[in-house]
Amino acid sequence: MYKVVNLVKNFDNVKVLKKINLEIKENEKVVIIGPSGSGKSTLLRCLNLLETPTKGYIEYKGVKLTPKSYKDIQGKIGMVFQNFCLFDNLSVIDNLTLAPVLNKIMTKKEARKQALEYLKQIKLADKLDAYPSDLSGGQKQRIAIIRTLMMNPEVILFDEPTSALDPEMIDEVLNLIMEVAKRNITMIVVTHELNFAANFASRIIFMDQGAILEDGDKDEVLKHPKTERLQQFLSKIN
Amino acid sequence: MKKLILLVSLISLIFLSACTKNQDELIMVTEAGFAPYEYYNNGEIVGVDIDIANEIAKELNKKLVVKDVSFDFVINEVKSGKADFAAAGISVTEERKKEVDFTIEYTTSNQVVVVRKDSPITSFAELGDKTLVTQLGTVSDLYVSENYPNANLVTHKKYLSAVEDVKAKKADALIMDQAPALEIVKENSELKILDGILFQDKYGMIVKKGNTELLNSINNVLERLNEEGKIEEYVIKHLKQEETTSSTNFIDNFVDSFKKTFIVEDRYLFFLEGLGYTLIISFFAIILGLFLGVLTSVIRDYNRETGHLKILSKLCDIYVYIIRGTPTLLQLMILYYIIFKSFNIAPIIIGILTFGINSGAYVSEIFRAGFEGIDKGQREASRTLGLNYYKTIRYVIFPQALAKIFPALGNEVITLVKETSIAGYVGIIELIKASDIISSRTYNYFFPLIVSALIYLFLTFLLSKIMKVIERKLNHV
Description:
Chain A has nine helices and ten strands. Chain A is of the alpha/beta class. In chain A, the strands form two sheets. A six-stranded mixed sheet of chain A has the order 6-7-8-3-9-10, with helices on both faces. In chain A, strands 2-1-4-5 form a four-stranded antiparallel sheet, covered by helices on one side. The two termini of chain A are 33 Å apart. Chain B folds into three domains: 24-105 and 203-245, Periplasmic binding protein-like II (D-Maltodextrin-Binding Protein, domain 2); 108-201, D-Maltodextrin-Binding Protein, domain 2 (3-Layer(aba) Sandwich), CATH 3.40.190; 268-474, MetI-like (MetI-like fold, Orthogonal Bundle). Chain B is built from 18 helices and twelve strands. Chain B has helices at residues 2-19, 48-60, 71-79, 94-99, 139-147, 159-167, 178-187, 212-227, 230-238, 250-263, 268-306, 310-325, 328-339, 347-372, 376-384, 389-419, 431-442, 446-474, and strands spanning 25-30, 39-41, 44-46, 63-68, 85-91, 101-102, 107-116, 131-135, 152-156, 173-177, 191-193, 199-207. Classes of the chains: A alpha/beta, B alpha/beta. Chains A and B meet through strand 6, helix 3 and helix 5 of A and helix 15 and helix 16 of B.
């Protein structure tokens, strides 16, 4: 699905990503962990060109990602943000139907039907006409997740989806992500929730200082860390 | 794109239809606040100069059109060819001869000194170290600077505001033409005219330099009228006949002012006309301003987001920079006298253009701030959902920015409405010009101005109420 080749990203003179090489297969469920400033969010944001690589390149399904080629796959790479990023000017139902209707994936009617179905599944059907400002953080993030699903994505990138939530709301969001994982969608999640990672992931990547230090099966990485940095990191988190 | 082309062609069509200069018209320019030479009567400009001009038009077999602008713009109108000739009680001076060609002198004006009744000044000799007021660009202005070099000279755009200076003891004496001065002391019981005539002055009409054909025709008519004694007849005919009361009772005074401002000669019609033009100019200027503002702010935003349209975006920056950095009045004059110099476009269209282009720059900045104030995540989310730049702006960023900046936008609209008050400079009868016209007839400076102020206040009150309603709707609660 993804092939990252010699990816370098600098912000001014700060080297955030140092020659990353990575392959991700279709339908893989990947969790990226690592301390703050390790470059994991930046890596994620390069995967849909929210950040432009300084050097190196990324292939998506065999095609090099450029602003031009990205246009053809727009909407196929969904993203869930730390701050939800629901459209503040639109009601819940409009948030959900705007993109699929404008991109002509569905008619207005079909989109509304699909949106209602998703809303029922997450038990927020009564919030149909509410505005984002009326919702709790957990509700917002769950709606943001089904908003990406509305576009029938092949990949969803999760950028610390629970970091901005109150503790009691974290589970409802993680449970929904677990639900989504049953689908045939490639998922890449940046998170600090190790328990969730252990349940959800098929593969875990550990990053530090702009480089990938460990990459492998979740049990291998979580239970038998090879590097000292990962051992330190795990002991601090637990 | 098609819509844009349609819009552009529509606008050019309006221009072209307004541009065709009528060869059958003879355009005279003046400032109609100088009775008995030129003044408004029942909504029409009349006076000695107009009577003469009618004779000239008859001679040339053309239809006379009289244009009313600010006195300091009169010479410019002729120089730029916007008017064929000017008759506005223009004194013949060497300086002016360099700019335009004068006709023969057709009337003599006596310049007198107006002082307060309780003033210690009794003779012209005492004026030397006093504060003297005159109207800007008139011959008395030149006379004082030459003959009383030690006096403190203050020049006013209107001699009626100069009158107020003397009344309020801000100035000691006013130097002006005798005919209107007589009207002024009749109207203001606290003022008098010093005995004697300070100096005499000759008035001529002016044409564009080198236009000898028209010059000769006017001279012929002037000579003939002089021989027939017609000009003196005109002066007598136009000396003011309106009854005056000088009561000290406040209520009587108020009723009298009210009558004179509104009822006599149906003068309230000037306010209606002024209100009408103020509204028309404001309305179309707001629409043009919003269009230009949104367009330029989106171009600049597009450049910031994508790096494309670099040159266009730079041009938009320059537009905003220049417009915000220069006074509106200057922009109005540049558009009127330089850019549209050789087009005979209705002043109201130039007014709309000026205020629209001016407002567009401010609206552009307001929207820029609005766009930049929207959280970056909104654009990113939209992008990851496959929406392109246009759709992101149209459905996500613009509506949010609009709600945020609406109070600032409302402010700009109110500013624009008030700013249209300078349109009178190019002869548009908006509210302030309307009050000027009325005060030039009633010799009461403040009453009509306060009426205009109240109308503005009402307008802006109404506008802010409307804005509030829309604002509430935009915030969807």
